[in-house]
Amino acid sequence: MRKLYVAMVGLPARGKSTLARRIRQGLLAEGIRAQIFNNGDMRRALVGAESTEPDFYNPENSAGREIREQICLRNMARARAWLAEQGEVAILDATNASRARRILIEQTLTDHPVLFVECVNEDPLLLNACIRRKTTLPEYASYSEADALDSFMKRIGYYESIYSPLQDEKFWLCVDSTANRILDERPCEGSPYYPAIREIVVSVWVHSLYLARHGQTEFNVQGRIGGDPPLTALGRSQAEALARHMRDRRIDWVFTSTRLRSHETAAPLLVERPGAHAMALKEFDEIWAGDCEGMLYSEIRRSMPDVTAGRNADKYGYAYPNGESYAILRERVQRGLRRALFLAGDAPLLIVGHQAINRVLLSLFLRQRSEDVPYIYIPQNQYYHISLTPHRKVFERVPYERTGRD
Ligand code: F6P
After folding, report:
1. Pocket of ligand 1 (CB under 6 A)
2. Domain boundary residue, one of 150, 180, 202
C-alpha cells in the first residue's frame, strides 16, 4: 500500500500545528501509524535564540535561509526513513509558505505522494489572539510583551513576502482552520489515507468543554428577562461551588459573555487559575429580548399577549419585537463556539453562558430537533461536560452544588 507525506502550509499562527496533531491523532485512532516532523522544534533545538530574531526569517538573509532549508531537508530525511520502516503517514509541520519550498519538497520526496494541507485563518479576533499567545511562548521569555509582539509581527511580514497559496502542487487541501471547512482541494486520488484526513479536517474536535450557566441573579428570582443584573448571594455561592468543584480539573481557557453575571460566575474560578486565559465573547451574550428586555414574564403575558402567544406557538422561530429568536441566535453562538474551540485548541475550556445560549450551544452537539431546543434543561447548579474526539465521546451533566434554583 502506498504511504503518504502530509506537508502543512500556512503563515505563522494559522492553526497548522493544532491541525497536524489532530490529523495524527485521528489517523492513530483508525489504526494508521502517523508521526509529526516539526521544523520549528528542530530549529529551536539546533539554533536557539538567534532564530527568534526576525532577521533570521528575512528572505534576503542567506545564512538564515540556508539554515532553514537544512532543517527542512533533515526533517524530510527523517520522515522518509520513518516511512521506509514502520510509518504510514508522515506529517511535515512547517510553514512551507513559498512555492520554491514546496517544489523542493515535491522534488525530494518522490517515493510516496505528498499531500499539502494549507491552513487559512482570516478571523481578525482569532488571528490577533493567536499572535499574542505565540509571544508568551518560552522562545520569547527574555522579551518584553511589546518587543515580542513587534518581533513576531516582523517574522510574519517576512513570511508574507514569500507566501503563495497552493495551486500548482499535485495534491492539496485548503482548509479554513477556524471553521473545520474545506475551501478548495485537489484530491489525492487512490490514496486510502486521503478520505480519512479529509474527514478529520472537517470534524469538530472538542477535547474537553465544560458548559456552565451563570449563577442566580435577582432577575432570575423575579422571573425578569435579559438585562445586566449581578449575582445574588446564592448566585455567588454557586460560583464559589463551581470553582471548588473544578479545583482539580485542568481548565486553560475560560470564555464568558460580556454580561456581569457571567463574569461574576467565572471570577472565583479564575482567581485560582492565574495562568488561564479569560476572554469575553459577545457571541455568548444572552438572547436579546428587544422591546421586552428587563420585563417580567408575567408583564409580557399581560401587556404583550402576542409575544407570549408567538413564543408558545413557535418558541424556536419567534423573534422578540426588535429582538432575537433562538433561530437567529444560532449563527452567532456557532461563531462564538468556533472561536472558543479554535483558541483553546487541544486544551480544556469552560464557557459560562446563559440559559438560551447554553441551549443553542448544546443543540450544536446534540443535533436536536429545533422545536425542542428552547426547552433543554439548563440548571444553575450543574454543568455539561462534552468531549468529542475519535478516542472519546463524552456527554454528561454534572451537579456541582446541591442547593439552588434550577
Ligand atoms: O430567565 C433568564 C433568561 O436567561 C432570560 O434572560 C432569557 O430571556 C431567558 O432566560 C431565555 O429562556 P426562555 O427562552 O425560556 O425564556
Report:
1. 220, 225-226, 286-287, 289, 354-356, 374
2. 202
Domain encompassing residue 174: 4-202
Which atom of ligand 1 sits closest to the CA of residue 223? 1
CA–CA dist 404, 393 (Å, integer): 29
Q: Which atom of ligand 1 is nearest to the CA of 355?
A: 4
Find the CATH number of the domain harbouring 373: 3.40.50.1240
Q: Quick one: 327 and 394 in the same domain? A: yes
C-alpha cell of 279?
Answer: 476572554
Is 50 a member of any domain? Answer: yes
Residue nearest to atom 8 of ligand 1 (CA): 225
CATH code: domain of residue 97? 3.40.50.300
The tens digit of pLDDT for each residue in 326-352 reads 999 999 999 999 999 999 998 999 999
**Domain count for the chain:** 2
For residue range 182-232, what is the model confidence (pLDDT) as tens digits? 999 999 998 999 999 999 999 988 999 999 999 999 999 999 999 999 999
**Does 164 share its domain with 248?**
no
Picking from 105, 263, 115, 110, the residue whose alpha carbon sits closest to that of residue 182 is 115
Closest atom of ligand 1 to 226 CA is 6
pTM above 0.90, yes or no: no
**C-alpha to C-alpha distances, 178 to 105, 116, 244, nearest whole angstrom:** 26, 18, 32
Residue 177: other Cβ atoms inside 10 A: 22
What does the CA dihedral 62, 65, 69, 72 come to, rounded to 10 degrees? 170
